[in-house]
Design brief:
The structure is a homodimer.
Chain A (H helix, E strand, L loop, with lengths): L9 E4 L12 E5 L10 H10 L3 E6 L10 E8 L3 E2 L2 E2 L14 E7 L1 E7 L5 E7 L2 E5 L4 E6 L5 E8 L7 H6 L3 E6 L2 E6 L5
Antiparallel strand pairs in A: 2-3, 3-4, 4-12, 5-6, 7-10, 7-12, 8-9, 8-11, 13-14
Chain lengths: 192, 192
């Protein structure tokens, strides 16, 4: 882990097109890390028999989880499909659930798929040059529905934390799939 | 003031080069709003006799000042000089002083000039494609040392608030001036 000076300030480069930094490394999520996240488990397993594609990567810069600090970085979601379902991030609640997150799309297009603990759902389409406000209390997942990478700059409260478990267990009510060449919102039949 | 849905989420466009949104309006700061911020008061007054240049503008989207929400937007600082001192923002402490801010430079170059209540100073140079971490407790001001606009996307905790008064009264210890065509850090002789 790189060591940044969160008490004195610093700069870090992020390419405005690709999202990559030349001075920090990414955390990578491959399909094998997300076996249970896609609706079509058979297709997941058949892809994994020959390949293990990189689905997305993002920066974790090691911001101390203190009140008043802000974690930031970029997320790069690659284009692709698992069956009819677009490549996406795992998605997470914040542990401190009442904390928002701001994204700014540098390249590409997709959906922010959101869901609160009461099961209220929201899907917001987003594209290059748009900021997205993910409100307090909503679990959120980024889905790439475009032809190229979906690249986003993000910021959230450092003490918000990530809760992947809840959403991994239950899944989201909705999923984003390709039908006749278009991105559509579908019910997730695996939701429990 | 536009009315955004901070409880349900929304997108808002910000041009990745100019920083401007087609769906929100900016707050503008003219030289007359900053009479006492520049070192060379005589030059300020002589400029104001014939003109009142726009120094910078930024978005205030009306985010509720609640814990867990995040204010965001862009700031555009125009290129120019007041005497030898570069165009800059007023700068501010957060009222909740222990709160950070994240900037991401979309265009241009300049300095983030920072100072904590104990008088510790930090000047960080920044340019297009760099994120800047402004740590908790530091007042911060953006200075444009380039030929074109300095455009930054920013995010900070919505309940942090802004305290312009303290820094307006005392000034910063340091100022960024042009000497022989180069940006240099100078002592502010008006500091009190």
């Amino acid at each position: 882990m790189e060591n940044f000076n969160w008490n004195q300030g610093f700069t870090l480069d992020f390419n405005l097109q690709s999202g990559f930094s030349q001075n920090a490394g990414t955390t990578k999520r491959y399909l094998s890390d997300m076996r249970d996240f896609y609706g079509d488990t058979e297709t997941v397993e058949s892809i994994l028999e020959k390949d293990n594609p990189l689905i997305y990567e993002f920066y974790e810069l090691g911001c101390p989880e203190r009140e008043g600090d802000l974690a930031f970085g970029t997320t790069i979601v690659y284009p692709g499909l698992v069956g009819s379902e677009y490549y996406m991030t795992k998605g997470h609640f914040h542990k401190k659930v009442d904390t928002a997150e701001v994204y700014y799309v540098l390249e590409g297009e997709g959906y922010m798929v959101m869901e609160d603990p009461g099961g209220n759902t929201r899907e917001i389409s987003m594209k290059k040059g748009e900021a997205i406000y993910v409100p307090r209390s909503f679990a959120h997942r980024s889905v790439n529905t475009g032809e190229g990478p979906l690249v986003m700059f993000f910021t959230f409260a450092a003490d918000a934390g990530h809760d992947y478990g809840t959403i991994e267990q239950k899944g989201y009510h909705h999923m984003i799939c390709r039908r006749d060449g278009e991105a559509v919102v579908m019910e997730n039949r695996k939701w429990n």
